[in-house]
């Protein structure tokens, strides 16, 4: 759970940096499918740590939730995820 909290805080920090950069330096004008967008100049790689932490948090949640959910669900409810089966 703590990894998930750290991931969410990191996501907020990256979003604040992105908005600050957009406000101070302006953006990059793009036309995608005939729609005009102004994108931030912040690199995509700034998001890599937050997505890695979110993945780790999800893995911990799945691993810790299986012993709780399996006995409660019974045999009549199949587990759809091959990683949990």
Mean pLDDT: 80
As residue ranges, the low-confidence spans are none
Strand content: 5-15%
Judging from the principal axes of the Cα atoms, what is the shape?
elongated
How many runs of DSSP E, i.e. beta strands? 2
Q: What's the Cα radius of gyration?
A: 20 Å
Strand order of the largest sheet: 1-2
- The percent range for helix content is 55-70%
Characterization of this structure:
- The chain has 85 residues and is mainly alpha-helical.
- It contains two helices and two strands, in the order αββα.
- The protein has helices spanning 2-25, 48-73; strands spanning 28-32, 35-39.
- Strands 1-2 form a two-stranded antiparallel ribbon.
- Strand 1 (28-32) and strand 2 form a beta hairpin.
- Helix 1 (2-25) runs antiparallel to helix 2.
- The longest helix has 26 residues, at 48-73.
- The mean pLDDT is 80.
Features:
mainly alpha; 85 residues
Q: Brief overview, please?
A:
With 85 residues, the chain is mainly α.
Secondary structure elements and their pairing?
Layout: H1 2-25, E1 28-32, E2 35-39, H2 48-73
Antiparallel strand pairs: 1-2
